[in-house]
Amino acid sequence: MFRIGKEETEAVARAIMSRDFFKINHSGQEVLHFDDEWRKTVGAKYALTMTSGFAALSSALIGMGIGPGDEVIVPAYTYIASALAVTAAGAIPVIAEADETLTLDAADVEKKLSKHTKAVMPVHIQGFPADMDALKKLSAKYGFRILEDACQADGGSYRGKHLGTIGDAGAYSFNYYKVITAGEGGALVTDDRVIYERALIYHDAAAVAFFGNQLDGITQPLFGGCEYRVSDLTGAILREQLRRLPGLLRDLRRCRDALAERVTGAGKAVQAPSHDLAGDCGTTLALRFGTAEECRAYQRRCREGGVATTVPIDTGKHVYTNWTQIMEKRGALHPKMDPFRMEANQGLNMNYAPDMCPKTLDLLSRTLYIGIDPDWTEAEIDALAAVMNG
């Protein structure tokens, strides 16, 4: 969480005191207002606020018609939720390398494509934009759908277009660790009416036909799904967080750039490349080293001086080798619900091995992250740089 205050407190109080804070209500309609405000902010036709980024990814995949017999390509470096959303739809995640920016490697995607590939999921990890031009070209050539996982990239952009709106659908997260937060939460956006209608039904399957007029104009038939609906308490917080977003991104990027200017080149560190540095959310300064040993030595120097750092190879469930449920092929508790055991999925690419993405593991071991505080002063940045420069 970066910034929160009395505005969010007052918004929650407003929703509570209305005594009418179910999502469909005749009072504040905070969630419905946030749907509209988020849609306009990112430039999408449709938006649905949900319980999490995982909920948004799952709903988007269902909306795309993804299921048993299908493969979805995901990057080797992303939170496990990206891959689990695929198995939740009954499909098989195919794991591809990350490129030098630590986002999905389009060249490896092309190598991993098969007749079963129905979607590709670029992940804008740490707010780093993926190579959407290359992936869009592949999509046009081979006919797969693109689902952007922008869960760590709220408000980020790629060449002037908001992350999450470049593919067929996009998913965002608003949990405690994201750019804007309601503690938990997420959203799906799309310009595709069919994806939207199916996601609407799926994410609120037991209630969407019962409360309000949510099915007005919906032509897709009702089907069974989940309950990912949020209350107006979440919507009220997110509306205030959204008002903070432009200033927050501006200050994150300013502080990242100021720190990068002072430290790159010191201790053999260079700033990791980006597909669009200006559109990067600025939450993280990524430094790249020639070897893992150089990276660790620099990390020790930083830690001895009190500067918090992370080597992303250490980030647990963000690295494919630690995706226990995927690597051990347990996609569901009941064997007949497990996509790895479904007859329709036999013969698909689930040949997982710890060493199958060596490029990604190498890059992760040679990269150092410094988390950015948007409220740093110039003096504080100078002090950090002095420690990092030794």
Describe this structure in words.
The chain has 390 residues and is of the alpha/beta class. The chain is 36% helix and 13% strand. The chain has helices at 6-17, 30-42, 53-63, 81-88, 106-112, 132-142, 193-203, 232-263, 292-304, 324-327, 358-365, 378-388; strands spanning 46-50, 71-75, 92-96, 117-120, 145-149, 157-158, 161-162, 169-173, 186-190, 270-271, 284-288, 367-371. The strands form 3 sheets. The chain has a 7-stranded mixed sheet with strand order 1-9-8-5-4-2-3, sandwiched between helices. A 3-stranded antiparallel sheet has the order 10-11-12. Helix 1 (6-17) runs antiparallel to helix 8 (232-263) and helix 2 runs parallel beside helix 8 (232-263). 51% of the residues are buried.
For the report, how would you describe the main beta sheet?
Answer: 7 strands, mixed
Helix tally equals 12
Give the neighbour order of strands across the main sheet.
1-9-8-5-4-2-3
The appropriate CATH architecture of the domain at 6-241 is 3-Layer(aba) Sandwich
The beta-strand count equals 12
The CATH superfamily of the domain at 6-241 is known as Type I PLP-dependent aspartate aminotransferase-like (Major domain)
End-to-end CA span = 30 Å
Estimated share of beta-strand residues = 5-15%
User: Structural class of the helix and strand makeup?
Assistant: alpha/beta
Low-confidence segments, ≥5 residues, pLDDT <50? none
Q: Helix-strand pattern, N to C?
A: HHEHEHEHEHEEEEEHHEEHHHEH
Radius of gyration, taken over Cα atoms and rounded to an integer in Å: 21 Å
Which CATH C-level class of the domain at 6-241 is it? Alpha Beta
Mean pLDDT across all amino acids: 97
Characterize the overall form: globular
